[in-house]
Amino acid sequence: MPSNASSARRIPAVEVISPRAVDSWTHTRSGDPRGYIDSDQLRELWIHTGTACNLACPFCLEGSHPGDGRIPGMTLDDVKPFIHEALELGVSQFSFTGGEPFVIRDFVNILNYASQHRPCFVLTNATEPLLKRRHQVLPLLQNRHDIHFRVSLDYPNALRHDRDRGDGSFAKALEGIRWLREQGFVVSIARQSDEGEDPEEVAAAFRRIFREHGIPEDLAFTAFPDLGTPGSEDGSPEITETCMEKYPSRESRAHFMCTYTRMLVKKKDQVRVYACTLVDDDPDYDLGATLKESMDQRIMLRHHRCFACYRFGASCAEPT
Predict the structure, then answer these.
(1) Any residues with CB less than 8 A from the CB of 37 and at least 6 apart, and which?
(2) What's the rounded Cα separation, in Å, for the pair 130 and 135?
(3) How many CB atoms lie within 10 A of CB 138?
(4) What is the mean pLDDT of the segment spanning 216-222?
(5) Burial per residue of 80-101, b for 16 or more beta-carbon CB atoms within 10 angstroms, e otherwise
(6) Which contiguous run of DSSP H or E holds residue 58?
(7) Helix (H, G, I), strand (E, B) or coil at 61
(8) How many C-beta neighbours within 10 Å does residue 140 have?
(9) Three-state DSSP state, 103
(10) pLDDT at 4 over 50
């Protein structure tokens, strides 16, 4: 559970609602035509389980904390029609994010259903909510398709990690990682990146910790920059059509998640389709009520997090 200091630093549940220029979807503030992506085939469907979480990290890109309701929790009944529509469209993977998915009452049922149809990918902090559900998670190994868990372990330093995630969360995450690997699940690590870091040195520091705690050293890492809290702007440069001329082919643009992914987001009592995992705080990225109609829409690269994809080739699902 989070420390008192962490619990006190609630992240505002903010969405982008400030007035905008009429043409801001298609043009930058300086009037240049905005860069865009035309979607390809749906390959990955993300399901946002809700913003409730057992931790209250001040940097959380979803603004999650215990009891948060900016995005309500999903149920199996919410998700089933979209799973079948995605299968019809040729989806190859179902992925899950939160909040903390294991806080959601129906999540194991959703994961059980999805993993009977396609491989699944789950973002989790692997602490108390997962550990309490071990008896429910273990039978999922018998399902037709593999489940890959990516665990948030911010830094190879328990004190620095726990400063924001709460006292003891580093040790709990290591316990969760060890248990998942011992059962035979695929596990990788999501970590925070520092300016000017040496990635090999960071990985080596993590692996020393893994050795000390009986965890295999072959876990893959995905490093993320600071993506900001919901509704924030970080001053990132805007992406113009001219910028996108550097990505003239379908192959070179394919690293943008909105080319091949969509995310289900529950808004009040309705499930809506959003462009990707990073833009659910902006209602202009609501692409409709079905996956098929969402794939026919051009995605303008207006959100400040779009620049992370442009600069880093960010993918929320593929570890390196």
Answers:
(1) 253, 256, 258, 259, 298, 299, 301
(2) 10
(3) 14
(4) 92
(5) eebbebbeebebebbbbbbbbb
(6) none
(7) coil
(8) 18
(9) helix
(10) no
